Amino acid sequence: EGPLGAAARLAAARKALDALALAELDMPLAEIRHAALVAAIKAEKLEDAGQKDTEEWKAAATEAASLQRQQAVLEARRNLLAARQGVLRAMPPKVDPVKQLADAEKALAKAEESAKQPPTTAYTKRPVTTYPARSTGRRLAFARWLTDRANPLTARVAVNHIWLRHFGQAIVPTVADFGRNGRPPSHPALLDWLAAEFMDPLTLPSPPSDEGEDRGRGWTMKRLHRLIVTSSTYRMDSTPAEANLAIDRDNQFLWRVAPRRLEAEAVRDCIFYVAGKLDPTMGGPDIDHNQGLTVPRRSIYFRHAQEKQMEFLKLFDAAAVTECYHRKESIMPQQSLALFNSELTRRHARLLAHELAAQTGDDLTAFTTAAFERVLARRPTAAETAECVAFLKEQAERYGGANGQLSGADQEGKAPASDPALRAREGLVHVLMNHHEFVTVR
Q: Above pLDDT 90, what percent of the chain?
């Protein structure tokens, strides 16, 4: 090894001994700090209760002061030990190790001298931040400036967001940028009128509210929602007309409601809901995202972070954790495959088929109608009914030829039904859950 190796081993051993010496002081120091804090809190509570100068307060204050003196001694000893180790290890150039060691020795001597003094009630209170008794009014002034009628930008932004949620497309397409870099509004007059109505609803009378809402009060989102959803524009049909398509294919003039896909959370919730399994319980802690396919709580209660997202929701464009203005929508084959092959969809299709079959019996037409109404929220056309009835008969015949080798069904729908007719019904409900109308707002 030689002298260099021996010196390296000696330095490593000295460093380990120094760390051990500091650790031996850390434990009693932590204990005395905790004891001093508890004693100080007890004395402060007695003072706050108006019991200062009582015998109980004097005992608590004396104990707190004594413990704080012991704490100061231990802290000074630890600082001195650290300073001595710093001298041995060659401190950085900007730190004078000799002066640091001298200061630590003086601090320890002072703390030991103070600890020898007679007991006293002069303990040190915890530092508490004091707040002014009266607000400066700056936040209120800022809020009033934001909502002043002379500054309609706030109202325009709020109205644009609400319009986006109802129609799927905003009046100002760049919802996060109303400046020169953003795109101009498609209907500037409509945006201004809605903003004016939102700030000061005087143009149209507001219908009376069961909750006693003030008809003349501005900045009421509830009233703005009511104004939008009761308008003729919102209640337009989504069926396209050839004549209108030739003039306005992009629906700029809002002559129909543009169909759009449900949000990812709504897609998952609808699967539980149509099967009668969605848990509508409000509130509570967040739920682990890995339980999203088994726990029937609403999607908004599951953990959603950059590294913790439900895979099913991610495929259907769940909310991006880095954006809070506008969701990005995509159409990918993985979405159809996830909806068709997901055990969540298959299991709840079986559960719903069992329920509807028990209600309708052997009537295939009644079962088809009930399935359409439950899953797609409409009655089937005559052609759809005929097609579905033929499908049910054909599938029952196919399954009936399996010589009874089909697995049995359970109450949770984890396995297909052994009865051929019931399994055919499960297949029809599964198909309807993969229908584009099931995940589309029209």
A: 51
Q: How far apart are CA 371 and CA 352, in angstroms?
A: 8
**CA contacts within 13 A on the Cβ side of 267:** 28
Q: Residue 28: count other Cβ atoms within 10 Å of its Cβ.
A: 14
The structure tokens listed for 299 are 């999607």
Interatomic CA distance for residues 281 and 301, integer angstroms: 10
DSSP alpha helix (H) spans, 234-324: 242-247, 264-274, 311-315
Q: How far is the first Cα of the chain from the last one, in angstroms, to the nearest whole number?
A: 83
Q: What is the DSSP string of 29-55?
A: HHHHHHHHHHHHHHHHHHHHTT-TTSH
Give the C-alpha distances (Å, rounded to integers) separating 133 from 33, 130, 412, 440. 32, 9, 61, 55
Q: What does residue 297 show for φ and ψ, rounded to 5 degrees?
A: -75, 160
DSSP state of 285: -
Q: Whole-prediction pTM value?
A: 0.63
Q: CA-CA distance, 14 to 12, in Å (whole number)?
A: 5
Long-range contacts of 213-222 (CB under 8 A, 24+ apart): 219/147, 219/155, 221/158, 221/162
Contact of 170 with 325, CB cutoff 8 Å: no
Are 22 and 71 within 8 A, CB to CB? no
Q: The tokens 């995509």 sit on which residue?
A: 330
Beta bridge partners of 302: 287
Q: Are 75 and 103 in contact (CB under 8 A)?
A: no
Contact 392, 367 (CB under 8 A): yes
Please state, in angstroms and rounded to a whole number, the distance separating the CA atoms of residues 171 and 185.
5
* Tokens of residue 336, six digits: 């159809």
Residue 151 CA, chain-centre distance (Å), reads 31
301 vs 278: CA distance, rounded Å: 13
CA distance 174 to 45: 56
pLDDT along the chain (442 residues), means of 10: 64 71 85 93 91 91 93 89 67 68 89 91 86 87 90 93 92 91 93 91 53 63 93 90 90 88 92 94 92 92 89 87 80 87 92 93 94 95 96 91 47 83 94 93 84
pLDDT at position 408: 47
Here the tokens at position 291 are: 């339980």
| Whole-number Å distance between alpha carbons of 220 and 218 | 5
Distance between CA atoms of 332 and 267, rounded to whole angstroms? 15
CA pair distance 162, 224, nearest whole angstrom: 8
Query: Which residues are paired to 440 by β-bridges?
Result: 261
The count of other CB atoms within 10 Å of the CB of residue 38 is 13
Considering only CA atoms, give the Rg of the chain: 36
Specify the amino acid at residue 372.
F
